[in-house]
Design brief:
By secondary structure, the protein is an alpha/beta fold. The protein has helices spanning about 10-20, 45-50, 65-80, 95-115, 135-145, 185-195, 205-220, 220-225, 235-240, 255-265; strands at about 25-35, 55-60, 85, 125-130, 160-165, 170-175, 245, 250. Strand 5 and strand 6 form a beta hairpin. Helix 7 (about 205-220) crosses helix 10 (about 255-265). It is elongated, with a radius of gyration of 20 Å.
Length: about 280
């Protein structure tokens, strides 16, 4: 297996900044990717947020296997002891549910302040999560505007800023956080599948082959049927030749093929898939 390395200096800085600012907020929203719900959770989140109430949003649920989403909501609720809501930045149906839960989680803090003779204020919230799980898109959904910078590349959100969601909730947007030492390569590959790791950190062909193997194990026949391989072996070369992705000398352009397969998955063309196994 090709080893994935990354040295995200700005993420180390973001983690330090988050630790400094955690005392400013009452509630933490952790955004994870519904396609890899376990793999996209920050493993040391409790060390960062201490005893702050936490709401977990399983984002990009429109791209994930609906049956697996239900299973993962229960699993994550059970081990995290947190509220979990499956959501999508493209759908506002659950907007009030999310804001109501945030307000509810923050109420003990507000009540405590009032008891001390202070005026009630808005609940202060921080959004955290791995790069490219959709934190900025969720914020835009919550405020119904586009103030937070968004982008498709891993780690695009680096600035921290306060955003007024409504009179009851103020939100502090934070950069994505990823473990600085990634010893679990299986998890690292899954993060690469969903573009949570910058492409400079890995060999795209190795990651794509690992993706194909993973999908074949969970959804047998899906890759072969989608790329119409019939009796051919499922390889990057065969898929490239089938799609006429060739380079000089009529050779298969396996790098372009790998990039296209991963993109097909990331935008949902391969179907609604969940690549963390719940059982």
């Amino acid at each position: 297996m090709e080893f994935i390395h990354w040295y995200p200096g700005h993420i180390a800085k973001a983690e330090k900044k988050l630790k400094e600012q955690i005392n400013l907020v009452d509630v933490v929203i952790e955004v994870i990717d519904s396609r890899i719900p376990l793999s996209s959770m920050y493993p040391d989140i409790k060390k960062l947020i201490n005893d702050k109430p936490r709401l977990i949003l399983m984002n990009k649920s429109d791209l994930a296997d609906s049956k697996e989403i239900l299973k993962w909501i229960k699993i994550i609720k059970d081990f995290s002891k947190c509220s979990v809501i499956a959501t999508s930045a493209n759908d506002n149906k659950d907007l009030s549910k999310i804001l109501n839960k945030v307000t509810e989680l923050g109420q003990p803090k507000i009540i405590s302040l009032v008891k001390k003779g202070m005026l009630p204020r808005a609940v202060r919230v921080m959004v955290v999560g791995m790069p490219n799980v959709g934190k900025s898109s969720i914020i835009n959904k919550l405020i119904k505007k586009t103030k937070a910078k968004t982008g498709a590349k891993a780690g695009v959100t680096r600035e921290q800023q306060w955003i007024r969601i409504n009179p009851k909730v103020d939100l502090l947007d934070t950069p994505g956080i990823i473990p600085l030492k990634q010893e679990n390569q299986k998890l690292a590959y899954k993060l690469a599948f969903v573009d949570s790791i910058g492409e400079h950190a890995y060999d795209v062909e190795a990651v794509c082959q690992n993706f194909i193997d993973t999908v074949n194990e969970i959804y047998p026949g899906l890759i072969k049927n989608y790329y119409k391989l019939e009796e051919q072996e499922i390889t990057l070369e065969n898929i490239a030749l089938k799609r006429n992705w060739i380079i000089q000398g009529a050779k298969a352009d396996t790098k372009r093929c790998a990039q296209n397969i991963l993109n097909d998955f990331r935008v949902g063309r391969l179907g609604k898939l969940t690549l963390d196994v719940s059982e």
